[in-house]
## 1
Amino acid sequence: MNTVMRKSVLGIAGLAFAGGLAAGPLHHAATAPIVGSAGSVAVAVQADKPGVDKGKLIPHGVRGAQSRIDLGDEQTANVKAIVAATKKAGLDERAAVISIGTSLQESKLENLGHLGDSNDHDSLGLFQQRPTSGWGTPEQITDPEYSTLAFLKGLKQVDGWQDMPLTEAAQTVQVSAYPDAYAQWEQQAADLVAEHWNS
């Protein structure tokens, strides 16, 4: 960016910031996607809400090509339930990113019941947890708060999970047949945490 353009952009940003201070907080600011130079989409934090430390969300950067899906109302409600359960467990935004990324891979954030012949054994819920593997009863596993807290309990038992890439942390808890599949959801999971952590 040339010097003149840079000064113009900074000047406009300064005026916008000063105008925001003079006018007071915005109460109905809409969030809009911001597309970065690498093509990733980051969700803008609403002006009247404190921001999330983006460095905590993806401390090691993403690994490999990223996938993204559009979420419906039920999936968004499940994101909010995962965030709330993460806070209830006393864990930070990074734990929420790992949880949401794991659920995106396991169920696309849908609270899955028994799928008949399509079921992976007796896997249920947001994280495809199995009653026969000791995750809880079918009723418990299909409760978003319970299933998230169960996942986080497993995560907390992983030494150094805070410093692991999402796919390694998730795989250590989930023991999936596709251990690298979680990595593709890290950017969308981080964007969702940035959007909903302080909402």
## 2
Amino acid sequence: MGSSPNSKPKIVRGSAGYVLEDVPHLSDYIPELPAYSNPLQDHPAYSVVKQYFVHIDDSVPQKIIANKDSPRGTHFRRAGPRQRVYFEPDEVQAAIVTCGGLCPGLNTVIRELVCGLYHMYGVKKILGISGGYKGFYAHNTIPLTPKTVNDIHKRGGTILGSSRGGHDTTKIVDSIQDRGINQVYIIGGDGTQRGAYRIFEEIRKRGLKVAVVGIPKTIDNDIPVIDKSFGFDTAVEEAQRAINAAHVEAESVENGIGVVKLMGRYSGFIAMYATLASRDVDCCLIPETPFYLEGPGGLFEFAEKRLKENGHMVIVIAEGAGQELVSESIQAMQKQDASGNKLLQDVGLWISQKLKDYFANQKTMGITLKYIDPTYMIRAVPSNASDNVYCTLLAQSAVHGAMAGYTGFTSGLVHGRQTYIPFNRITEGQNTVVITDRMWARLLSSTNQPSFLMAKTVIEEKKEEEEEEEEEAAAASNQ
């Protein structure tokens, strides 16, 4: 995949502990780069807006909760149009690529990138790269115009196609250089953004006037720094349909159990928010918090109790939850897909079978269990109204940044404001549910499920105390 990024972060420090984690600019490595007046100043739709252009020093704080003695802390450059641009519309040859798995809103982002470039800045040469990163050197392209993308936001998926892996930095940059592409818009998750970072580094090393811009895409909402990923609201909304179906099935029979498996390889945000929104869920299991099945405080005991109380129950489980329980071998745990993601066992089927086996062995009550996996139905739907607006803002911010000469950044929302975030911050880790946070406490309060970790800790501590008492008694009898 090429060499790892090695550039130093661009840090600007100010008074009172102010830190700006700035993004690279083409002028950082291309001397005497000409600048031009932004054509938006004469655009009839934008010229009437007072203070439409973003001030050069505007920034957005990463943390907004502070006390009187707090330093100002880390900030990111505010997104938006600048008074000066570093590309003339006629010279721009833009390329758009989508990578990784499907997500609601991909077509909306593509549409708004094309329309933003075309209508705001007068850019006419826009290419779509087919089939993910490998499309760069397979020479698969689709010409894009506002007419060709006019109604694609009403469809799920991506008109450009997508794939995992296939990244070769040198071959991709060779293709970019050979085709005269000077703006690259890369839509994808953390692995895709790491690839974008390598492309940016290679372009900078060659001294090319090419802006590389990322738009973060992960339906799991596991990209750090940003408030949320596009498609997440749609995923939660669609997940509720599956939960509602499971609830209807469960309450329509005696001792009915509905099990719904939702997306969330490493982060349980979809499961958590869908559970909170639904209010029909009795137990939510996510990767961030371990759970166990047998014994006091375990899932089996809780399920039996809930069925006796209500006559039915609904369990929501994220795909990455309980993998240490379901994996039968270390070898199974270490298999990966083309993007380097760990291949997971189907925890939904596994837990469904475990519940069936438990109640069959107990012979105290018969159950009827229905298992629903809506994964691909959720991924494939068009984005809802909220996500459509968000996709528009992300795409337009990306276009403004590229035209202003910024590069090596991801367009993202931080505390409700559009920002430009350096690639290294987006790829440094994963956003996960903090189980010591108030939101998880709200979920536990909503479902009244046990906090399995706490219950297990109590059991283990009690067992240790009993063992210590036994040892003390044995020592005393030996004296």
## 3
Amino acid sequence: MPRNWKEEVVFTAIMAGLMVFVMTAYNVTMAQGFSNGLILAILSGYPLGLLVAIILDMLVVGPIAKGLAFKYIINDYMRKRVVLIGITISVLMVLGMVTCMSLFGIAVEGELSGAHVLATYGHTWIFNLIVALPLQLLIVGPIARAVLGKMQQATANREETAITEDED
């Protein structure tokens, strides 16, 4: 888990950057199939999706997911196993982000009007969840946590070196 603002920003950038890129590619491919303009469509949809995802992650979904996790789900057993805390928060984050970003996606595509908007949203939500949850738990989450761990280890090493130098 990030311990300060710098770590939070790096962790969120990696997590959101990878998740949004893969999910944008998935959704664009599902919408238009493999075509000549696929790469351009993915790259053109990515920046706005990333911006929205980072804002939602840091200001809405992240605080709610962490609040729910620590208030209602995480118990003493889980506190002794940090990986369970990470998985719990990851699952809640995916549920929240899929809920919000699916709505964002159908809004951007102009599909928020019409008689079938709830069916479109439900279809989009479930298809996004099917991809986003394993993507987060098996690929993106471990990558982001590994980078965060290396950052935290480097910080700990610098602090240890500074303490040793001060003692000399």
## 4
Amino acid sequence: MTRTAALKPEQVPADSKATLEMFTKNIGFTPNMMATFAQSPIAFNAWATLLGSLSKALDVKTRDSIGLAVSEVNGCNYCLTVHSFTAQHMAKLPADEIILARKGRANDPKRDAAVQFARKVTENRGQVNDADLKIVRDAGYTDANIMEIVALVAMYSLTNFINNVFDPEKDFPAVAPAGSI
């Protein structure tokens, strides 16, 4: 059940139009989440700026794996459909890696450390311990990289919360509930 309607093109606030049009052009359609989020130009454009900046952080497989882990912890079904789709089609992650990422893991040892750390940050609201930091550092991540992981957790949590609150209609292929994977 959606809690607010996605905006039609003529309803998009002027200050959200350029950003939404850029996403529509890049994706090939306007996802309902974005057409919903665009109702607040301030929040939408702030998120889009953060997304653009963080698209340079780490590598695409690690970013998508973190998005899956965070969305699973936060129970965001919309984001799980989006990140499963992008992980498969853009990051070229195989199905078993997508499932592992949802569980907060990865086959690649370095990516596994980042995804496990991101899951702990999400579950514990940033309250990690020295051992958690040591593990991710020992995997080869610098403190700057760790800050990028935390920023990705925050960015994905933002969209998780927006989607959990407003529950836009899903427009990506459905994924199985976590209990069945």
